[in-house]
Amino acid sequence: MENWQRKWETTNKGGxxxxxxxxxxxxLHTKINLTQNFTTMVMGRGxxxxxxxxxxxxxxxxxxxxxxxxxxxxxxLECATLQEDRERLIAEVAKTGDxxxxxxxxxxxxxxxxxxFTKKLMKLxxxxxxxxxxxxxxxxxxxxxxxFSYMKRRNNHCKYQL
Length: 162
Prior knowledge:
Blueprint: H1 2-10, H2 15-20, H3 24-28, H4 36-43, H5 49-54, H6 72-77, H7 83-94, H8 103-119, H9 121-128, H10 139-157
């Protein structure tokens, strides 16, 4: 276990995930319902415009809310589309502490509220998948669909666990 922890602390990969789960032992003992949205938030990968833009799947990383690039930090702390949902999360955190809270404490102390917040990522997905005026898919949407189709096929052959 110590070797695994040492590797976890020294790797330059999984930066976002290590913020949520800095201790391997604690993660292994934490019961978590891994959903697509939860995994997207704690890994910073998936249906997030900054991630898709990084691989040139879409043309821009701008969030549909119009307030910056759609990154995990933006979604958690700034996205106007998720403002009401964030306020509910903040209210839950405020019962026992201050906001913003460290990501590992968000999991340790407020997992249920955070998991509920991650379910709201579908609001962003709906905005990303809006059709253009003619009703046809945009170039960005077509590229994104192709990427997720590939990822779905790949993940059917290979399952990852946090």
